[in-house]
Each structure stands twice: as C-alpha cells, then as structure tokens.
Amino acid sequence: MPENQMAITELFSAAEVILDAAPATKPALLDRLAAEAATRSGRPAPEILDALLAREKIGSTALGKGVALPHTELAELAVPVVLFARLQRAIDFDARDDEPVDLVFLALWPASNRKGLLAAMAEICGALRDPQSVRRLRGAKTPADAAQIVLQAVARDGEDPDIVKDPDDAPPGL
Predict the structure, then answer these.
(1) pTM for this one?
(2) Exactly one of 26, 43, 71, 86 is catalytic; which is it?
(3) In whole angstroms, what is the distance from residue 138 CA to residue 132 CA?
(4) Cα–Cα distance between 96 and 59 in angstroms, integer?
(5) Can you tell me the distance from the alpha carbon of 121 to that of 107, in angstroms, rounded to the nearest whole number?
(6) How far apart are CA 61 and CA 72, in angstroms?
(7) Is 24 tagged catalytic?
C-alpha cells in the first residue's frame, strides 16, 4: 500500500465500534455517526453530517444484505476516521435490495487523499464478502469482539488473490 494510504488495520480498533445503537431512521443514524466522528476528527458534527447527507443524495451507500458504508471526503480533515455501528433494529437505508440495514461502516477521509478512501472502502467491502464474518458481526458481544472480527476479515481478504489491490481497479459504485 502506498505510503500516503492507511490500511483499515491502522485506523480501526474497539474504540471505533458502537454496538446496539438505536436510531429509528437513516437521518438519525447519520446524525449519531457524525457526532461520533466529530469527537475523533476535531471537525464539527454539522459539517460531517452535511457531507454525509450530500453523499447520500447522490445515491444510497447501502451495499445490500443489511450492510451500509456511508462515506465522504472532507477538505479540512487531518486524519481518516473509520467507525462501525451495529444497530439494535434494522432501518430503511434506501438499499437497492430493499433490505433494511443493521451493520454500518462509516469512512471519512481527507479530500486530499481520494485514493486512500477508495482503498479503505475496498478493504471494508472485501471483508464483508464473507457471509460468516457478517454473521459474526451481528452476534458480537463486545466492541473488542467486533473489531477483531473486522480485522481478521480484512486480513483474510488481503490474502485473497482476487482482491482489488489498486483502488483504480475498484468495482463501480465504490
């Protein structure tokens, strides 16, 4: 991975996990994630929320099968922020498969490093290709358990010769 790109393993730990969040709607979830990201990034929550909502207007970031990956770039963001939230109850996220979402990864990235965002999203998507990892995330008992599941899935996917190594080769929609 090029020097200016950070791997998920460098950004993600139990501290970035929110288990059993209870938002009733997509806007409420994005508001909660923006507030959490603000505490980690030093950027104002309204700025983050506005950027997330603007991205969602382009098209839903729901990946299908109950998983979403809201993401955006921020011009003044110094370091990337990656969060994971598991919801108490699945919510409508305007997914193409019409499945409600209960697992959400948030990726905020400095606008100056777009390739880094694409690479991080490819890592997350790759880790979520394994249905067993998704099932285990839904049953994780602690933030540490959830973080370990994610990091193990990322590591396993990184060993897959079919994984996208160059973000320019990422599938459409990332």
Answers:
(1) 0.85
(2) 71
(3) 10
(4) 10
(5) 8
(6) 10
(7) no
